[in-house]
């Protein structure tokens, strides 16, 4: 074989392997979601059809879906409201205990969540928040605030101080400068962090399982329960639905936004 | 406006963090090491198992990340980069379920292999519900993070070093392992610590892919202690040990970085 052929076949094998590694697990989910009858050991289902999709989309999965989106929306709004001013302060000004505050927002990234959240659960029990939506929102907020602060501090730091100084020299107040100069410039970063916080809340499992159970069933909990109960089709359909927002976000970030924000994500 | 965020993280994370330290020493009449004794009697094997699973997945990821990250440093390929970012955006529970479907004894992988005549279905191998299943799932989920971190490290290496090595006749693999990896050692160590910590604290994947008998990952033991035994003391002791292991990894990283 010539060198060109070698290189071409090497490339085909490389792409094939990459596709198999990434899409292999996902394609199994697709197959299971349309399998109406699938007897082992056949490679493909005996009977395929949309029966289970219809069943799931008309069933209690929709309640979990709506609940998840509702919680994620509230968490995102609260997070932005709470972290935009804080991140701006942290990025621009010297403030007392700044190092301590940064350390505070580093801790949740550095240690396993489960042992801490199990003690948070004891606290929330005392305040009657276990098994309630506000309790789940609070536990989602912990992780969401941490992500948002780290992303937003770097967003605000990337905006040159000289723009703000020019505006203040021209006689604008600090407030006016923030709302008419800094905030508009930081909108792409704000959108990116809002989307990531939304996705974090939508996918959150550990905290929701501890604080929400048994009354609050979000999408990941619903998926987990049906998978552990060996309802293969229901779990696979829920899993596929749960993947869509993340893939959309990946596409949006690739297309329109800087990928530096990505590295902060992916640890939960 | 800045205070509520600090307040929430302080009350719902930092305070419970210190509570878990305190409660791990609290016994009926005062303070003591009783919970740690219990944990070491019951779970020494499981703690070692947790470290080994994390180290094994990390090793796979580092080899993969260095080879692919190096390749992408030499030849930019946006398509492959995009493909390997996908796992980052797929929730842990979905990865757990997908791996169960793919790797179970009667899963899709075995069925495909049997159709190709590679394995015998009378006696199908089970990857899911074993250590290999947990390792595969953890490694898959962290592919993107490892690649992103390592690519970042390799990209910051000056092109001149690579060109110089190539001019004197070094091939790609040689450049990768004798020039790029040593130069990016610090960043590789940071990535390794980050990934190790997140794997050690992983909970949903071991819950879904672990075996019912045999060793468990530490977080699964912790969860069972709370839910089934209602033994918060032992659970907190496991928690504190897991903090120490994460801190140990971080300290090791700090030492290697400051030594240079």
Kindly list the characteristics that best describe this protein.
heterodimer, A: 268 residues, mainly alpha, MetI-like fold, 2 domains, two-stranded antiparallel sheet, 13 helices, 75% helix, globular, disordered C terminus, B: 260 residues, two-stranded antiparallel ribbon, 12 helices
Brief synopsis:
By secondary structure, chain A is mainly α. Chain A contains 13 helices and two strands. Helix content of chain B is 75%, strand content 2%.
Overall CATH class of the largest domain in chain A: Mainly Alpha
- Give the neighbour order of strands across the main sheet of chain A: 1-2
**CATH architecture group name of chain B:** Orthogonal Bundle
CATH topology of the largest domain in chain A: MetI-like fold
Query: SSE string of chain A, helix = H, strand = E?
Result: HEEHHHHHHHHHHHH
Biggest interface pair, counts = A-B, 76 and 80 residues
The separation of the N and C termini of chain A measures 48 Å
């Amino acid at each position: 074989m010539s060198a060109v052929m070698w290189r071409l076949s090497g490339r085909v094998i490389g792409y094939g392997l990459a596709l198999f590694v990434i899409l292999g697990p996902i394609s199994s989910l697709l197959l299971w979601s349309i399998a109406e009858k699938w007897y082992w050991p056949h490679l493909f289902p005996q009977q395929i059809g949309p029966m289970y999709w219809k069943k799931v989309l008309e069933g209690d999965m929709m309640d979990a879906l709506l609940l998840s989106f509702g919680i994620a929306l509230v968490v995102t709004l609260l997070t932005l409201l709470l972290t935009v001013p804080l991140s701006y302060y942290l990025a621009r000004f010297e403030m007392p205990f700044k190092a301590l505050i940064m350390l505070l927002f580093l801790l949740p990234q550095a240690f396993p969540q489960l042992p801490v959240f199990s003690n948070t659960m004891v606290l929330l029990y005392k305040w009657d928040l276990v098994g309630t939506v506000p309790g789940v929102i609070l536990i989602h907020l912990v992780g969401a605030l941490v992500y948002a602060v780290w992303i937003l501090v770097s967003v605000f730091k990337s905006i040159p101080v000289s723009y703000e100084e020019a505006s203040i020299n021209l006689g604008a107040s600090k407030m006016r400068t923030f709302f008419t100069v800094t905030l508009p410039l930081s909108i792409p970063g704000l959108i990116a962090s809002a989307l990531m916080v939304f996705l974090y809340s939508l996918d959150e499992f550990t905290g929701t399982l501890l604080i929400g159970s048994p009354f609050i069933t979000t999408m990941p909990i619903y998926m987990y329960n049906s998978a552990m109960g060996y309802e293969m089709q229901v779990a696979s359909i829920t899993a596929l639905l749960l993947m869509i927002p993340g893939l959309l976000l990946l596409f949006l970030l690739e297309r329109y936004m800087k990928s530096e924000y990505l590295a902060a994500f992916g640890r939960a | 406006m800045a205070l509520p965020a600090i307040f929430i993280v302080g009350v719902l994370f930092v305070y419970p963090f210190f509570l878990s330290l305190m409660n791990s020493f609290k016994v009926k009449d005062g303070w003591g090491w009783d919970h740690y004794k219990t944990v070491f009697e019951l779970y020494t094997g499981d703690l070692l198992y947790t470290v080994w699973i994390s180290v094994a997945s990390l090793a796979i990821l580092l080899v993969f990340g260095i080879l692919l990250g190096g390749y992408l440093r030499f030849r930019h390929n946006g398509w492959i980069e995009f493909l390997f970012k996908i796992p980052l955006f797929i929730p842990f529970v979905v990865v757990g379920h997908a791996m169960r479907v793919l790797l179970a004894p009667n899963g899709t992988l075995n069925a495909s292999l049997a159709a190709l005549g590679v394995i015998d279905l009378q006696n199908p191998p089970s990857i899911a519900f074993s250590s290999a299943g947990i390792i595969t799932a953890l490694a898959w989920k962290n592919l993107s993070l490892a690649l992103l971190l390592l690519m970042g490290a390799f990209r910051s290496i000056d092109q001149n070093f690579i060109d110089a090595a190539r001019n004197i006749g070094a091939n790609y693999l040689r450049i990768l392992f004798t020039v790029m990896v040593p130069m990016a050692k610090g960043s590789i160590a940071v990535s390794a610590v980050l990934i190790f910590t997140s794997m050690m604290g992983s909970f949903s994947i071991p819950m879904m892919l672990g075996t019912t008998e045999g060793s468990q990952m530490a977080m699964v033991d912790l969860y069972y202690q709370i839910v089934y035994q209602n033994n918060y003391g032992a659970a907190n002791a496991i928690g504190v040990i897991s903090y120490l292991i994460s801190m140990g990894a971080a300290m090791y990283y700090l030492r290697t970085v400051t030594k240079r």
